[in-house]
Design a protein that fits this description.
single chain, alpha/beta, Rossmann fold, 2 domains, 6-stranded parallel beta sheet, binds nicotinamide-adenine-dinucleotide
Amino acid sequence: MNDITSIGIIGLGNMGLPIATRLAAAGYTVTGFDVAEAARARLVEHGGRAADTPADAAAGADALILMLPDSTIVSQVMSDAALRATLSRNQLVVDMGSSEPVRTRSLAAELDADGVALVDAPVSGGVSGATAGTLTIMVGGAARNVERLTPALSALGRVRHAGPVGSGHAIKALNNLISATHLWVTSEAILTGEKFGLRPEVMLEIINGSSGRSGSSENKWPNFILPGTFDSGFALRLMLKDMKTATALAEQLGMPIELGEAAVAEWTRAAEAMAPAADHTEVARYLAQESAVRM
Ligand code: NAD
C-alpha cells in the first residue's frame, strides 16, 4: 500500500533534518516544524516547507513524524491542543526518536481513544546513516500501519518490524545500552594497550578481525575518536538517556542488569564532567584524561 505522499515532521535536528531531506528527495511533500528558527530555515534549503506551528506541520499530512530528543518532549508536543485538533483518523503518528517504550504505549492508548494510530520507528545508524539512507529502522505497531509506512521508511533504510507498539523503542534502548557498554570497554582496552606501547591503529585492525569487534571498533574509534574530531552527531546526554531507558525497563520487568547499571554509572560520571553538548564519542577522551590524572 502506498497512500502516503505527504509527510509532516516535528524536530529538525541532527537526525530530523537528514530524514526530512531524504524524504523530500524521494518525492514526498515534507512540511517540518522545529522550535529553532534556524532548523526550519535549513529544511527549506533542503527541499521541504517550513511550518509555523506543530499543528501546521500535521495539517493535511498522511503521516506525522516526530524526531524529538525524548519522551518528555514528545508528550509536551503531543499535548498541544491545536495539534491534537488537527489530527484525523487516517493519519499516522510516527515517533522516530528514541523514546521510552512504556510511555510510548501510554501515548498510543491515548491517541487510539481519538482514533489516531501511533507507530514507533526509532533508528540506528547515526547522522551518516540518515544522510545515506542506510538506517536500521526498528518499528513497533500494528501490521497494517507498518505496511502503510514501509514505502516511506524504506527511503531512509531497512525496515524491521519488531512487534506491537513500543517494541521499536524497547529494542532501540537495549541496543544503545549494548553499544555504549562496548564503547566504554573498547576505549578502556585501547587506552590500556597504548600504555603498553601498542599503536591504536594496529590494535583496531586486529580487533576488527577478531571477536572483540563492534560498532565502536569498526566505526566510532576509527572515524571520530582517532582523528580527534568527536563529531558523530549523537550527543552524550542522548546516549545516557537511552541507557537509562533500558535499565529502567529491566527494573520494571524484574530483570537483574548489573553490568548495564555499572555502565550507566560510568557514563553518568563522564556526563557530569563534560559540557552539556558533548558528543558521545568524547567519552574516550574523558577516559584518556582521567587515566592521565590518575598516573
Ligand atoms: P537534536 O537535539 O539534534 O534534535 C532535536 C531537535 O528537536 C532540535 O532541533 C530541537 O530544536 C527540536 N525540539 C526540541 N524541542 C522541541 C519542541 N518542543 N518542538 C519542536 N522541536 C523541538 O537530536 P537528534 O540527535 O536529532 O536526536 C533526535 C532523537 O533521535 C533522539 O531521541 C535521539 O536519541 C535519537 N537518535 C539520534 C541519533 C544521532 O546519531 N544523533 C541516532 C539515533 C537516534
